[in-house]
Amino acid sequence: MKNYENVVIFNHPLIRHKIAILRDEKTSMKEFRELVEEITTLMTYESLKDGVPTTEIEVKTPLETCTQTVVADNSIVIVPILRAGLGMVNGIHVLFPLAKVGHIGMYRDEATLIPETYYCKLPQGIENKLVMLVDPMLATGGSACDAIQLLKDKGCKHIKFMAIIGAPEGVSKVAETHPDVNIYVSTLDRCLNENGYILPGLGDAGDRLFGTK
Asked: What pLDDT score does 50 carry?
């Protein structure tokens, strides 16, 4: 895969450690869910190093008053792509507990692999916020591209997309379709198989998060 200016692939040893456990087929649903949240928190911290809405406030210490920079209130919205993206929400809420949450529901047609949108509910004023769009798996890139376009159609101008596992095919598609959106992936895997699943991957993230298989 070629290098894209809007793509960041993390190479953090702590994330790599957690990914190794996440992949293991013997990892329980509880531990899988906790790992997804922990990895998301680490990714959020890293992905916001290049900018987050801030404001300055006056703080009175025991010795004097000083000016400090804080994250602006009500400046971030979390948007998971249903259903697996729900597993990443709490990982961001650890850092931004008051962030509002929108939802985009998509499913992938098993025959065509084309995503279909069935639900969309977004907070008012989202067009003026920094939107954190999340989905654990970036496979073909179809769902991510469509979700980003949906957000743009709603007026969103500041979007970051985060995926835990990415395939080169999907990362390339999103990067080229939406060059103005920063993409953060904790691990880049080898390829997609004939059914559109990431290899080596970790199986179906939604099933493993919610125990539906």
From this structure: 78
Q: Which residues are catalytic?
A: 108, 112, 204, 207
Smallest CA-to-CA distance from 87 within 134, 27, 145 is with 134
Whether 168 and 188 have beta carbons less than 8 Å apart is answered as yes
In this structure, how many other beta carbons lie within 10 angstroms of the beta carbon of residue 53? 15
Indicate the pairing of strand 54-60 with strand 65-71: antiparallel
Residue reference for tokens 């801030």: 54
φ/ψ bin of 207: left (φ > 0), alpha (ψ from -120 to 50), beta (otherwise): alpha
What is the chain's alpha carbon radius of gyration, rounded to the nearest angstrom? 18
Tens-place pLDDT, residues 73-85: 889 999 999 989 9
Q: What is the pTM of this model?
A: 0.91
Other CB atoms within 10 A of residue 110 CB: 8
Quick one: three-class SS letters along 172-190? HHHHHHCCCCEEEEEEECC
